[in-house]
Write a structure and sequence with these properties.
By secondary structure, this protein is mainly alpha-helical. The protein has one domain (2-84): F1F0 ATP synthase subunit C (F1FO ATP Synthase), CATH 1.20.20.10. 83% of the residues lie in helices and 0% in strands. The protein contains three helices and no strands. It has helices spanning 2-23, 27-46, 51-82. Helix 1 (2-23) packs antiparallel against helix 3 (51-82) and helix 2 packs antiparallel against helix 3 (51-82). The protein is rod-shaped, with a radius of gyration of 20 Å. The termini are close together. The mean pLDDT is 90.
Length: 89
Amino acid sequence: MENEMIARAIVLGASALGAGTAMIAGVGPGIGEGYAVGKACESIGRQPESSGAVTRTMFIGCAVAESTGIYGLLVALLLMFINPFIGKL
């Protein structure tokens, strides 16, 4: 009984650490999207007639980059609230 409680505590602690690590995945998309928007503004400032194509390409790129952060959030939520590893003990 005591070994099972210790194993459960270790799994919960490791899941919390994994969820925190997964949330680091939100940093990359934030930096990348900020850089992309800055470069898009710079590009539109240099060549205003290309603003439609630049804006469209920027939005597609930001959407793809944001999906990485959303996947990290999904993994963190799964580890914190659903935790599929507890049932394996």
